[in-house]
Design goal:
By secondary structure, this protein is mostly helical. The protein is built from nine helices and two strands. The chain has a two-stranded antiparallel ribbon with strand order 1-2.
Length: about 200
């Protein structure tokens, strides 16, 4: 699966071939065909496994937190841990979002990491409103999209730009995030200061 994830993220869905994946995995093309009758089936399996490895795991980890800042921090830390184990996960998640735009048939609703993450972020924001962490008049949809842009931007950076050794350390471990205070002018954003 790792070889397929790497090839799909490097070449894209259209250019990826069973042959390229087989070479990367040190297998024969027929060996891959034995388990996956089509590229689409292999791609969906990679999506499912990557979502379970990163997104579902990050949501589980973050549910243990009681504040919005804690949940977002835990989500990012969990994703960074998965990235540290296999650099291709972030790259694949980002490219899978792009591929679902190019090929809507690849974006099965129950396998869409972007929509799954968006639903989680909206839920966390609504919980924060209910808990009084965030003003009740906040535009949850707009705030969720802003957080999505930040989170997916981090994923893009981690998968394609960042230095591998830097991602082995958690960028949030030296970050002291405070909760959103209802008394701030707009009730947003979470303040974050990096420790020196």
């Amino acid at each position: 699966m790792r070889a397929a994830r790497e090839v799909f993220s490097e070449l894209g869905y259209d250019a990826a071939t069973f042959q390229a994946i087989a070479i990367r995995a040190d297998l024969t093309r027929p060996a891959i065909n034995h388990y996956f009758a089509s590229k689409r089936l292999l791609y969906q399996e990679v999506v499912d496994q990557t979502n379970a490895l990163v997104i579902e795991s990050a949501v589980q980890q973050s549910q243990r937190e009681s504040t919005l800042a804690g949940r977002i921090r835990a989500f990012i830390q969990s994703a960074v841990q998965a990235q540290g184990q296999d650099r291709s996960v972030a790259a694949f998640l980002v490219t899978s979002v792009l591929e679902s735009e190019r090929h809507p048939e690849l974006a099965e609703t129950d396998h869409d990491s972007r929509e799954f993450t968006r639903g989680y972020v909206k839920s966390a924001l609504k919980d924060a409103v209910d808990a009084g962490e965030v003003r009740s008049d906040i535009d949850v949809e707009a705030a969720a999209e802003m957080l999505m842009a930040v989170m997916w931007g981090l994923g893009f950076y981690a998968g394609f730009v960042g230095i591998k050794s830097a991602w082995s350390r958690s960028p949030t471990s030296s970050c002291s995030c405070s909760t959103v205070r209802p008394g701030t002018p707009d009730g947003w954003p979470v303040t974050c200061a990096t420790a020196a």
